[in-house]
C-alpha cells in the first residue's frame, strides 16, 4: 500500500508546481506564453470552446512532448490553430466551400479538415502523416492575442489527460495536467463549453462531412452550405478519436436518459421538473433550468467535473433534446457513458 504521508506531500508538490504555472492572462503573460511556444514549450490557453494545450505545430519535438503530456496515442492527428483566414490559407487549400464556411464562421467554433499545402512545414506528428490538416481560427480574445504574438501555427488538442473530460476552466487543466505544462493562461470559463464542430471538405467527397458535432450547430452550417451535411463514412472515422466509443469520460459510471435518481447517485439535470429521487440524491447540477441548449453546452464539462468529484456511485443524466447544440451534447454524453477499456484518445 502507498504511504499516505508520502502521497500527500507528493500531491502538494505537484499542486504547488501547477500553481506556479497558472497565471492570469495579462498582456505580459500572453507575451511570455508566446515566447514559451516559440521556444518549443507547452502552453495551455483558453478558447471559446474548451482550453487547449498548445505546441508549435512545426516543431516535432514540441508536439511529441504534447502527446506525452496528454498520454495520447500518437496516431491521432491534431487541430492547428491560427489567428486568421489568411494565415490558414498559407497552410491548406480551403477551396470554395472552405472559404464560404470560413467567412461565415471564423473566428469561431468550426474546424475544417482540408488538403495540406505541399511544403507547409507542419510536423508529420500533427497530421499523423495524413495529407489533410485540421485548421481552426478561435474567437477567444486571449487565444487570438496568443496566436498573433507567437505568429506560428499552434497544434492544440483539449488540455485534459487522454480520454478524460475536457477542461472549461484553467483549474481543470491544473488539476489534470499540472506540472506537465510549462504555462497555463487563466482566462476564466469557456463561453461555448463544447469542442469545435469538425467538417471534412474537398477532394474525393462531394459535400462537407460532419466528423464531429460540436459548438457550431448542424443547422447553422447547412444554411450556409445550402445542402445537408453528410455523415462521415465509417472508414473516415479512425482518424477522429472523438469517434472512439469511450471518450470525455468521468471516472464514475454514467447512466443516460434517467427518469429517476437513486440516493447514491448524482444527477445531471436538464430543465424542470426534476425526476423522482432528485431531492435525496448526492448532488444535483442542472445544465439549464430553463431548458436552453446553449447554456447547457457551456455548463456541461464543468458540471461533469463537479458531479464526478462527489462520493456518488454514479452519475444519472436526464434526457436532453437532440436539436441545435443538443446533437453535440448527446454525442459527448454518449461517449462518457460508453463501456471503458477501448483505446483512449
Ligand atoms: O474546440 C476544439 O476543437 C478544441 C480546442 C482546443 O480548439 N480542440 C480539440 O482538439 O478538441 P482535439 O485534438 O481534442 O480533437 C481534434 C480532432 C480529433 O478528433 C482528430 O482526430 C480530428 O480532430 N482531426 C484532426 N486532424 C484530422 C484530419 N486530418 N482528419 C480527420 N480528423 C482529424
Ligand atoms: Mg479532446
Query: What portion of the residues fall into strands of 2 or more residues?
Result: 15-25%
- Helix and strand content put the structural class at alpha/beta
Largest beta-sheet details: 11 strands, mixed
Helix and strand pattern: HEHEEHEHHEHEHEHEEEHEEEEHEH
Radius of gyration: 20 Å
General description of the model:
The protein has 11 helices and 15 strands. The strands form 2 sheets. Strands 1-8-2-3-7-4-6-5-9-10-11 form an 11-stranded mixed beta sheet, sandwiched between helices. A 4-stranded parallel beta sheet has the order 12-15-13-14. It starts with a helix and ends in an 8-residue tail after the last helix. The longest helix has 18 residues, at 4-21. It has 345 residues and is of the alpha/beta class. Strand 9 and strand 10 form a beta hairpin. It is globular, with a radius of gyration of 20 Å. Magnesium ion is lined by residues 157-158, 166.
List keywords for this structure.
4-stranded parallel β-sheet; binds threonylcarbamoyladenylate; 34% helix; alpha/beta; 345 residues; 15 strands; disordered N terminus; binds magnesium ion; 11 helices; 11-stranded mixed β-sheet; single chain; globular
Itemize the secondary structure elements and their pairings.
Elements: H1 4-21, E1 22-24, H2 27-38, E2 43-45, E3 52-56, H3 60-70, E4 79-81, H4 85-91, H5 95-105, E5 110-115, H6 124-127, E6 132-136, H7 141-150, E7 154-155, H8 170-177, E8 183-186, E9 197-200, E10 209-212, H9 218-225, E11 230-231, E12 254-255, E13 265-269, E14 283-286, H10 293-308, E15 314-317, H11 326-337
Parallel strand pairs: 1-8, 2-8, 4-6, 5-9, 10-11, 12-15, 13-14, 13-15
Antiparallel strand pairs: 2-3, 3-7, 4-7, 5-6, 9-10
Helix pairs in contact: 2-7
This protein binds threonylcarbamoyladenylate and magnesium ion (MG).
Amino acid at each position: 500500500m502507498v504511504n499516505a504521508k508520502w502521497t500527500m506531500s507528493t500531491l502538494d508538490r505537484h499542486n504547488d508546481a501547477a500553481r506556479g504555472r497558472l497565471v492570469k492572462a495579462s498582456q505580459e503573460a500572453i507575451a511570455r506564453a508566446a515566447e514559451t511556444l516559440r521556444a518549443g514549450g507547452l502552453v495551455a490557453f483558453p478558447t471559446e470552446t474548451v482550453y487547449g494545450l498548445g505546441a508549435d505545430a512545426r516543431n516535432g519535438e514540441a508536439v511529441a512532448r504534447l502527446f506525452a503530456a496528454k498520454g495520447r496515442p500518437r496516431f491521432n492527428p491534431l487541430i492547428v490553430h491560427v489567428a486568421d483566414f489568411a494565415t490558414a490559407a498559407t497552410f491548406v487549400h480551403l477551396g470554395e466551400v472552405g472559404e464560404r464556411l470560413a467567412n461565415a464562421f471564423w473566428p469561431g467554433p468550426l474546424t475544417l479538415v482540408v488538403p495540406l499545402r505541399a511544403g507547409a512545414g507542419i510536423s508529420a506528428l500533427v497530421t499523423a502523416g495524413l495529407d489533410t490538416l485540421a485548421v481552426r481560427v478561435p474567437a477567444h480574445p486571449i487565444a487570438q492575442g496568443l496566436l498573433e504574438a507567437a505568429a506560428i501555427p499552434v497544434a492544440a488538442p483539449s488540455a485534459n489527460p487522454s480520454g478524460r473530460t475536457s477542461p472549461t476552466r484553467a483549474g481543470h487543466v491544473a488539476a489534470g495536467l499540472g506540472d506537465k505544462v510549462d504555462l497555463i493562461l487563466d482566462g476564466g470559463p469557456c463561453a461555448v463549453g463544447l469542442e469545435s464542430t469538425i467538417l471534412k471538405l474537398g477532394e474525393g467527397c462531394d459535400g462537407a462531412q460532419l466528423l464531429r458535432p460540436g459548438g457550431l450547430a448542424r443547422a447553422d452550417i447547412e444554411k450556409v452550405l445550402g445542402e445537408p451535411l453528410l455523415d462521415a463514412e465509417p472508414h473516415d472515422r479512425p482518424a477522429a478519436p472523438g469517434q472512439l466509443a469511450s471518450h470525455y469520460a468521468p471516472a464514475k459510471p454514467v447512466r443516460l436518459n434517467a427518469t429517476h435518481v437513486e440516493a447514491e447517485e448524482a444527477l445531471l439535470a436538464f430543465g424542470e421538473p426534476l425526476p423522482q429521487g432528485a431531492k435525496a440524491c448526492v448532488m444535483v447540477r442542472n445544465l439549464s433550468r430553463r431548458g436552453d441548449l446553449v447554456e447547457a453546452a457551456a455548463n456541461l464539462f464543468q458540471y461533469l467535473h463537479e458531479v464526478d468529484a462527489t462520493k456518488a456511485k454514479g452519475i444519472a443524466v436526464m434526457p436532453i433534446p437532440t436539436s441545435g447544440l443538443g446533437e453535440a451534447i448527446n454525442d459527448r454524453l454518449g461517449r462518457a457513458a460508453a463501456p471503458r477499456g477501448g483505446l483512449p484518445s
